[in-house]
User: Fold these one by one.
Assistant:
Number 1:
Amino acid sequence: MQWDLLMIYIIFSVAASLTTTFIIQYASWKGRNLATKEDISGITTKIEDVKLNYSEKLEDYKNRLWELQHEKGRLYEEFKIKHEILEKVIVKLNKFGSDAINHRIYAHHRNIYLALYKIGSGESDNKQYREFQVKAENSYLDFGNQSYELTALASTIKVYIDDTLGGNLLILKGKIKDSVNPKKNEDDYIQFVRSELEAKSRDSVLSTTEDEFFEDSINPDEIACFLYQIQERIKDDYRKITNK
């Protein structure tokens, strides 16, 4: 009986000891496991924060890069437009000046032949008059078209390049336009032709230039100076683009 009780006590003690050890070890393992999960959770959170921060910065960088590229593209497109405007101004302004000179010459010869016809009543002079009349009319139509296009170009220059340069183009256009205005009327031409025929000859009459019969022509240097100014302004804009 005592032996049985002793055996039961020993078995119970061993069982209790094992149970206690297991509970302590389990509790210790459980604590370590929980700590490990908390550590992993914290590390994971930090990693996710870093990834999120990096992703946000990367996205911000992409947006800034896109905006920069977009701005560069826009500026280059503007430069191309400005260069096209310059090319048009060069062509139109030179054409406008040439049309003005042609019209002055045609109108002058028209008036000379008209005066000769009225003084001498020669049919050949009347024929020459009609021919130069047609040339003068056509040249004036071309001149008017160029004037309209230059006005439109001046407005474009004000928007895309410089307001002052656009205004300067209008001033130039006005000076060229004024140069086709005659200073002498039909009676003045008749008086001139009659006096020339009396003092000199018909060839002398036909060799006269239009300068004294029309308003002063524009100085070509003024046109060259304007074209240089607009070209330099566009170059400055291009340098600003490439330095950005």
Number 2:
Amino acid sequence: MSDRGFSAEVVRFDIFQVDLRAGELRKEGRPIKLQDQPFRVLSLLLNRPGEVVTRDELRQNLWPADTFVDFDHGLNSAVARLREALRDSADKPRFIETVAKRGYRFIGVVDDTALAVSSVADESHSLMKGEVPPLAGQHELPNSRQDAGVTKYAPARTWIAGVPLVVLLGAIGLWPFYRKTAETPLASIEVVPLVGLHGFQVTPAFSPDGNQVAFRNSDGAHHTGIYTALVGGEKSLRLTSDSGDCCPTWSPDGRQVAFTRYADKTISIIVIPALGGTEHRVYKGPAAMGGGLAWSPNGEFLAFPEASGVDSPRSWISLLSLFDYSTRRLTSPPGGSLDQSPKFSPDGSQIAFVRSTIAGVSNDVYVIGAGGGEAKRLTFD
């Protein structure tokens, strides 16, 4: 069983397909963005399904011996990203199980049906090409039944040879039903009618496909938090319930929502699945006076206003890497000013932001390259 994962180029489990040669993870045939290290973790676990792969084994496979890095943090980050891609939970895992103080184990069911269908498909393809090998106990008819060098076989042989094709067609017909039954229901989440949503709804953000809107609802009581709603729908989905949550932004693939959480003069940036689930904090630091959060089109960075200290009124635009969670400062506002409300250009090469005076006298729009450089002022109050 442990060799089965790498004996086929494509491994299937639940509604996912893993192309080991191409290094791709797909969900129902659609590619899912997954970085190299999380994919390698998945490959190693699939190579030994049901067995514990130790943290040390994963470390040796993910990083060369002469690499200087925080292995524990890096591995935890890779596993967290893998779980996000699979919509899995560390608390109630369906695929990736944590074995305390040892490592991880793949507990999903690898789909043998997919391998069987693949085998039948290969055989049926050979049939259509006329490459049918002789079956045991069968013989060619006399030469008088042969035409133009093409060997004719007895009718019984033709019927038997057609069986794999019938099996293939049956498997293809049943696959959609198998796939549906393989899906595991999502964890229970709260659905609230829009007509019954009390309070103020602010900071709306469209999903990439334009079908949903994420927003903050605030009523000072029980319904404060981040919500999503279908455009034209009558209900909303509550993702969080913290009074300090604000400013949602969608991942480019529409599968996750990032938002800020203010508490005790600090700000945290948190990522959560768009259908609800486990929160992942990716940043924590002093709260800035300015607000706003933007996800880069390539999915690798979050732009946000960062401050140097709790009591500092100034803020600048920084980029947070979702790979190693490091931050890089982009802008340098002059004294008495703060930068806020960043937005990426469609190609991700530029960031627009608002530069305001701390006294609130003026607000102007600037643009800066995502790689840094001099900010260009576009408006003049």
Number 3:
Amino acid sequence: MKKLPLAALTVLLLCGPSAAADDAKTVFGLVQGVVDRALAVLRDEKVPLDAKKEMVVDIINPLVDLPLAAKLALGPKQWPRLAEKQRREFTDLFVDQVKASYFEKMDQFSDAKVEFEAPVAKEDKFYMLTHVIGKDQRLKLAYKLYRSSESWKIYDLEIEGVSIVKSYGAQYKEFLQKGTFEELLEKMREKAQSAKKSSKGKKSPEEKAGSPDAEGATPAAQAPVEAEGVSPEAKDAALNEPDPAGGDPSVKEQPQVRNPPPAKSSPQAE
């Protein structure tokens, strides 16, 4: 095996940490920028609520890879078995469901303050923890990012330690142990139609159930199928299964990149 020249080794040693630090700063700036822009829209009293939600989704979309999240949630066993048409429909339904479950609740945090921690690197991915501080509650939101061919993208979000991808994945896995994939699609279609109808009028019981309870706790995810519900085993699986994208970068276990950007917070509404 050929040995690298001393000059080449020196370049690698000097550029490696610098490149990691640059990536950390890029990730930090992307996440903070998107969150701050979304909060600015939500705090604008002149913009109607429905328009705010559309604007927030437009801000978030470029940074989030929901199609990849759909693939990871369904899992490596089910995904290869699907025809291209099935993959497209499942992805579309998954994306609509996640947006309805999470993006539609963002107006609840319009007056919140957000604190950003330095991104933590693991191989080619980053884990960035934020703290959303409201009047009556404090939530931990962690963003998981990978480098796509275009830029850094969020492929998963943790709310109070519960992963969106793993939570939905555990529910799909439980459903498919008894039902077929086509039955799962039908349930998702029904849920999508119900969400469209309820969005035009009064909130449905399912939407109310998905809102924060009296103590201010926000559920990590809504069930993809309503009739069967989610068993305690599925909920435990969502917490204990490994990251489907190749390992969960734990803040406690993984070393931080050198010279990470300092923790910052978004300005609170005046």
Number 4:
Amino acid sequence: MSKILNSGGDEAEFAKPLYVPIKRRSFFMYAGATAGATALLLSGCDDDNVDPVTPAGTVSLGSGDVGVLNFAYALEQLEAAFYAKVKASPASDFSAAEKDYFSQVAAHEAIHRDFFKAAINRDAPGKIIQDLTPNFDSIDFTKRATVLSAARTFEDLGVQAYNGAGKYLKTAAYLVIAGQIVSVEARHAAYVRDLISNGSFADDSIIDPVTGLDKALEPVDVIAAAQGFIKEKLDATSVGK
């Protein structure tokens, strides 16, 4: 990393904001710094990819880099809404440490959500998806076990989503930031898994025993898994195309 930063080239200068800790201020500094560099790339992708007609009442995530960013934004909206609710009304059998942990995660996910919203609005005006409405009717937020189970579902799905969609990003800067975000999601997933069952943070159900890598899912499969928690119908068929 030091070799890259000391190279003195334009690419190194462009990348510098990506090598600092991800905090709210850093995210918005990054979004502003990359706006000019990525706007033409994103608009160019839209010119080359014409999205198919989306059925009435369905939210299309779009194609190209915009589609991938909207895909991530949809998932971050879901996670941010979930953790905000957990923080506001923690389960009665949470420990003090667990309450503190979920407060921290709520802040992380809100930052991720706000970053994608700012980035899409700046780099691809008019292409952002709407604010989504979460559907948490199946989750009993008063019980620790059900909250942890839902958190594990969201975090595991989030890691698999970034792993599966990263290959579709054409803009290098966004691929780097996605890599930073997925590492945070993986930390969340590992912690929640150990709260449920100590030592399960990296078992074969989530790590491929052959490759030693986290599992990955295609965007359409991720949305299919998440759809039950979102009231609007989402269409991810053009993501990555």
